[in-house]
Amino acid sequence: MAATKPTFAWYELMTTDTAAAAAFYSSVIGWTPKDVGMPGMPYTTFNVGEVGIAGMLVLPEEASAMGQPPSWIGYIHVDNCDAYAEKVVEAGGKILKPATDVPGMLRFVVVSDPQGAAFVLFTSNPAMASPPNRPTPPTPGTVGWHELYTTDLEAGFSFYSNLLGWEKASDMDMGPMGIYRIYSDGDPAKAMGAGGMMNKDPNIPSPYWGFYFQVDAVGAAIERVKAGGGNIINGPMQVPGNSWIAQGIDPQGAMFSIVSFVK
Hints:
Layout: E1 7-15, H1 18-28, E2 32-35, E3 44-48, E4 51-58, H2 61-65, E5 71-77, H3 81-90, E6 94-102, E7 106-112, E8 118-124, E9 143-150, H4 153-164, E10 167-173, E11 179-184, E12 195-199, E13 208-214, H5 218-227, E14 231-239, E15 243-249, E16 255-260
Parallel strand pairs: 1-4, 5-8, 9-12, 13-16
Antiparallel strand pairs: 1-5, 2-3, 3-4, 6-7, 7-8, 9-13, 10-11, 11-12, 14-15, 15-16
């Protein structure tokens, strides 16, 4: 049985209005927000039960001033984030934020791949216990799929394959949209793969990783998106594996996606 390779293990929203975003995602996804910040360092987790699935913080003013919109970013767990960051640079990627320690919890570094999609590499503190009975997809509130929109599918896949050991599971011909590549991180529980990669539409400003949040039913979640002031930009549509998906923008401008076996 293949061993699980480095994979996404945390997700973080940087936004301009954390209170409004907390209310929106609590309604749409079903998360319970929890304030876990420290003095001078506000931070909110989005929980399923008592287990944190994602986090949220205020978009830094300097980032907003440089034109960075509210957005989600994914954290990939590795055994040594500093060593992996060096490999990112050697492969043509960039370090966007130097390695930083969160005392007692983790060490992380923000990087981008050679095509410009940002992600975080992190190493957890060995003393930090993993929560028991962590929920898995398709439990509502978990993350069911990861999707890279890039400018060069083959170069992008090669980067992640060489860096993290991810493997091609299959290719799907999407016609005018090109090839959709499904990748595996070796986890046998992810029968359909861990995520997909494709060349982005020219209208998408820059490469990025997108994340699909599991919901009870896509149709009902779409109505909650609209009621909460968000917008649906694509879907609902059925995809291989009998899942239904939709893609949207939250009221502050961050893109997100939802997925469910129920329309």
